[in-house]
Amino acid sequence: MRSAWPLWLLLFTLTGILAGVVWLTYHPQHPWLTVATRWPLVGPAAQRLQEVYTPCRMVAVSRQPPSEEPDHPRRLSVARPFPADAAPSRPLPEAPPETFERPAWMVPDGVVGFEWLRGGARLLAAPVADAETVATLDTLASLPVLERDGTWARVRLGSLEGWVHLDADTLSDDPPLGRETVPVTGLPGRPPDEERLERARRLLDDGGSEGRLGPYTLYTDVTDRRLLAHLDRVASRLEDSYRRRYGLEPTGAAAAAVVLFRDEAGYRAFEGGEEALSGLVPQGHAGHGLAALYTGGLGEAAVTSTLIHELTHLLSRRAIGPALPPWLGEGLAEDLANTPVDASGGLLLGELGGTRQRGGERVIFGGGYAALQRLVPGGGRLPVGELIALDQEAFTTRDAQAVTYPESGLWIRYLLAPESGLARGFQSFLAAVAAGDPIDPALLARHLGRSPADLDQSFGTWLDAEYRRYLGSGNLS
Questions:
Q1: How many Cβ atoms from other residues are within 10 Å of residue 455's Cβ?
Q2: Which of 162, 239, 305, 339 is 20 to 30 Å from 315 by CA-CA measure?
């Protein structure tokens, strides 16, 4: 008697394919299906499925869709006189592990979740109620979310992107197959955006030259070989320091590039093309698979600190995920940027780095010392509860950034300090976030096991002790 298993195998295969097609009719904008439209043979069928089951009517679009990834600027670090009562801003990402990297087609790059939206929901050109309508949904749809801003979400609909206000009028409580969510988790290293990279290279003197900084491709017109060798050692060892400091494993291998400008003017011309940095005066920034900074007029310590800051942003994208709340993203970057570096390029984790120079009767501080000087003597810091509640816009205003950047870095440093007793709880919080738990103050409080008021008080006491340790009267000479 002939075996019937080939027939059963065929039946199960056909059933699985049919179930998959049915599922895709409910998720026509899923990134996997979008990628499949570019495949040979099945591409036309995938494109037709999207066209038929995408429930919307298109309208004219008068502007480019928002950027898929925020830029992370490093604020200009200005040394402070002692004892100054005000300080301007200050704000800062890798080596590949030998692990399997998932193919790009398996990864919905840039997607932080999905939302079921009702028919009639409008996608707008900006997260404001009176913005121009980009598209309107005719029926219920599950759309990938690229970014969240309070009660607004930036979603993708085919080749369009738009903002939708999430409320009872737009959200569906009962999606047909249940609400699907994709946690905010680490993403594989992102190659540099080609247009941005080309624009940056045009601004390098004579087009610059190509090299390496650790696992990153380097494009630069800097010719100081000693400085480049030092930065290469730092970049080569940074990912290991990140793992040991935060207990996190970045996803995949580094794929980004670093653009190092010799002159500030070249960097300013490049930075001026980023709308997200409008009105800011950063010393460097990272995003879209690029970290950019300059050396002109800055010492080796400042350039090294800026490079560490920006590469840390790229590492956090791989280890935790994109679009972190600013206190966390900038705090991690500042924590490592303010760590001293030894001759081999390794970070002396747990130590606070900085510079001091005496000019007459004044002492000028830089780096981590400037952060302490800014916060402690005048007591001008924010309560911790307010700091972690700030959104990106409020965090980076000219008035706020003089406090928010240094305080976030020292807050992270406090949480990891042995004397705080919070290091294990904070690392468990980071692990939970990296696994997809929502980032909110309640999650942090649960893992730390302390009330906000208690944390704020003990943070202030720790800051005073750090000030005496590093900047006490006996350390000012």
A1: 21
A2: 162
The one-character DSSP state at 212 is E
Helix (H) or strand (E) holding 56, with range, is: strand 56-58
Q: Please say whether the dihedral angle defined by the alpha carbons of residues 98, 102, 107 and 112, taken in this order, is positive or negative.
A: negative
Rounded Cα gap, residues 207 and 201, in angstroms: 6
- The DSSP call for residue 350 is T
User: What are the DSSP calls for 117-164, one per residue?
Assistant: E-TTPEEESSSSTTSPEEEEESS-EEEEEEEEETTEEEEEETTEEEEE
Comparing CA positions, the residue from 338, 196, 314, 313 lying closest to residue 259 is 196
3-state secondary structure of 80: strand
Calpha distance 159→8 (Å, rounded)? 40
What's the full length of the chain, in residues? 477
Distances (CA, A) of 226 to 99, 223, 230, 343: 32, 9, 6, 12
Contact 372, 471 (CB under 8 A): yes
pLDDT at 465 (0 to 100): 95
Mean pLDDT per 10-residue segment, the chain (477 residues) = 59 63 52 54 60 40 38 49 28 31 40 80 92 85 85 85 89 51 75 95 94 98 97 98 97 96 94 72 89 93 96 97 92 97 96 85 86 84 91 84 94 97 96 90 91 89 94 65
